Amino acid sequence: MTNHWDLIIGKNIQGLRRKQGFSDDQIAKYLKITPRELSDFEKGTRPIPTSLLALLANLYGVDKYDFYEENMGSESAIPDFNFRVDSIAVSDLKQIASFKKIIRNYLEMRDLVSPLQV
User: Fold this and answer.
1) What is the C-alpha separation between 66 and 9, in angstroms, rounded?
2) What pLDDT does residue 47 have?
3) Which of 33-37, 73-77, 113-117 has the lowest average pLDDT?
4) Burial of residue 116, with CB atoms counted within 10 A of its CB: 0-12 exposed, 13-18 middle, 19 or more buried
5) pLDDT digits (tens, 9 = 90+) for 75-114
6) Is 70 exposed, middle or buried (0-12, 13-18, 19+ CB in 10 A)?
7) d(CA 74, CA 64)
8) Is 90 exceeded by the pLDDT of residue 58?
9) Nearest to residue 103, comparing CAs of 72, 58, 36?
10) Where are the domains of the chain?
11) How is domain 4-116 classified at the architecture level of CATH?
């Protein structure tokens, strides 16, 4: 039986993957799962572990709770980079995810401090 939340999360992870130009094989290797498992997660026929959601959130530049948004679309708090994703190695994906996590944390801290500077 398919869960409503699994469908929403699946739609969001697929939308962000496509928007950022990553193939299912690249993301499967990054997550250390099979492309079939990724397909099941994206279709919402299988719940995705939160540990994998956290990895995807860092790579896509979003908060892991954003995946639960019904109308998330394919927005990211961090602007997309323009590079050829078809030639990116899994180790590069890990570096990109780390970099986007740093940027996202900076933006969150900036937003928290800004109201204090009145």
Assistant:
1) 9
2) 96
3) 73-77
4) exposed
5) 555 555 545 566 788 888 888 888 888 888 888 888 888 7
6) exposed
7) 13
8) yes
9) 58
10) 4-116
11) Orthogonal Bundle (1.10)
Q: Which two structure tokens, joined as six digits, stand for 77? A: 């708090």
pTM of the model: 0.76
- The angle, 0 to 180 degrees and rounded to 10, between the axes of the packed helices 4-19 and 50-60 is 30
Write out the two tokens for 68: 């639960």
105, containing H or E segment = helix 90-113
Find the angle CA(37)-CA(91)-CA(44) to the nearest 5 degrees.
Answer: 20
DSSP 13-81: HHHHHHHTT--HHHHHHHHTS-HHHHHHHHHTSSPPPHHHHHHHHHHHTS-GGGGG-TT-TT--SSPPP
Other CB atoms within a 10 A radius of the CB of residue 17 amount to 21
Structure tokens at 29: 């290797």
Entry field: residues in the chain: 118
Q: Which amino acid is at 61?
A: G
Q: How much is the pLDDT for 107?
A: 85
